[in-house]
Design brief:
Helices cover 29% and strands 27% of the residues. The chain has 14 helices and 29 strands. The strands form 8 sheets. Strands 2-1-10-9-11-12-13 form a 7-stranded mixed β-sheet, sandwiched between helices. Strands 19, 20, 22, 23 and 24 form a 5-stranded antiparallel β-sheet that branches. It has a 4-stranded parallel β-sheet with strand order 4-3-5-6, covered by helices on one side. Helix 4 (173-187) crosses helix 5. The termini are far apart.
Length: 544
Amino acid sequence: MHTIPLRVTDPARHNGTVTFIDGDHAQPVSWYELDHDAKGVAAGLAARGIGPGSHVALLGTTNRDLLTTIEGVWLAGATVMVLPLPMRMSSLAEFIDTTRRKIHGADTALVVLDPEFAPFIEAVEGDPPMVSYDDIKGDPETWETPAVTADDLAILQFTSGSTSDPKGVMLPHRSVLANIDDIAECLILDPENDVAISWLPLYHDMGLIGVYLSALVRGINLVIAGPQTFMASPSRWVQWMSDYKGTITAGPNFAWVLATRALKRLDGLDLSPIRVALNGAEPVDASNMAALAEAGARHGLRAEAIFPAFGMAEVSIAGTYPELGSGLQLDHVDARVLETEQYAAPVEPGTDGAKALARLGRAMPGLEIRVVDPATGEPRADREVGELQIRGTSLTTGYYKRPDATAAAFDGEWLRTGDLGYLIDGELVLCGRIKDIIIVAGRNVFPEDVERSVAQVDGVRAGNVIAFGVAGRRSEGVVVVAEARTEDPHAVRQVVEARVRETVGLSAHDIVLVEPGTLPKTSSGKLQRSLCRDRYLSEELQPV
């Protein structure tokens, strides 16, 4: 039986700890201690009138105060909204403006600021009260369980905005707990033996629900750092896995690319305890995962631990999981047939024109998935490409104060994901996003194919390439924008042009090389193709 509001289930029974990593410093705290402190926060919030129905926004780096306050908001019966941190300090004004719009759009009753960010966000007329962590610390003994139901809103999670403006995804306690149960069942979580390792941001559903909440509710040992710590030195991630004998960890595709590089140059690691190395939150690159398996083998990382999955905020995070221990399973298809006929025709590996796609497993126990024609809604047969739709226990109830977006997102009980893919005996394979497809001469060109190929060019920054389509005289043309570090942009541009022709059999309409740090990204690090396209068309991009 779950405890509502969200918290550790009977924290006194669990011996698990949360170890906070800050640089080279580690601070272990028991779940019991964290739960006790969270009661104090809940009491302090209640004294300020915060309770069921209140929305509380949190802005801070990953540390003990943030995790305690997240649970404290739930123990007060309120809804938590963890705000994204700025990706770059150079975009501070844009960050403040976006943050304020989210705060007001979510009808926020209180903003809790990490003292580190207080100097950057000064309250103006109309803003809700802004307080620090110390301002809301009360007496744990005075905490009283609020009257919260399973249908009350637990989380207001803003989408990443990779293809549109961010929207507030409403996740009630019922949906979140259903997904956590699904995760625990599929991963066979063991509070006595499992150790989760995470640097994922808590303002993203993968870090907040997939790791932190799953560990919180089950009392799993958790080692946690902030995304800034990881990005400053990505090799720390695999070092933490080894040092703390991690058994479960997760990250987006780009992070596993960085981990693979670290594994190639580091020595003395022991990754043999890892049983789940989950890749999700952005398209899974099969070749990158194969490289991870090869690089990790000498450190004891078992190939069967690699775990490609699908998830999104609208299903509370986990959508499909592969069978535990199955490793990376690939589907080899004819790339040209996929592009021209929207059918995944199977071919033998190594066949000329073959494309390898990762199989992402089956729907979580409480969910169902189907693939339909995006235009008509008619179900597709196995291997016929269409839009992925999902229904079940962990779905969002819609977008906050956006009835238009909520109506557009659902086909009856089925959530329209906007993802293109196909099924093989119930297993999901994804091809790309509907909005991102480039239609050239009757072919569906997937921008990910172009981006992955161009990212391998010397001088181009891996993970920092965007491809999109622009209107031409007869059809769309392919534009490539790539961050580059080079003294000879002309030479790099020529290689990129050749790589595009080799990948899609077409010449690029345009190739733009830009300075590192130029490409627009979401708060979770996803490339924003539509925004990049807008900047290209308005001639805002400055070529090197």
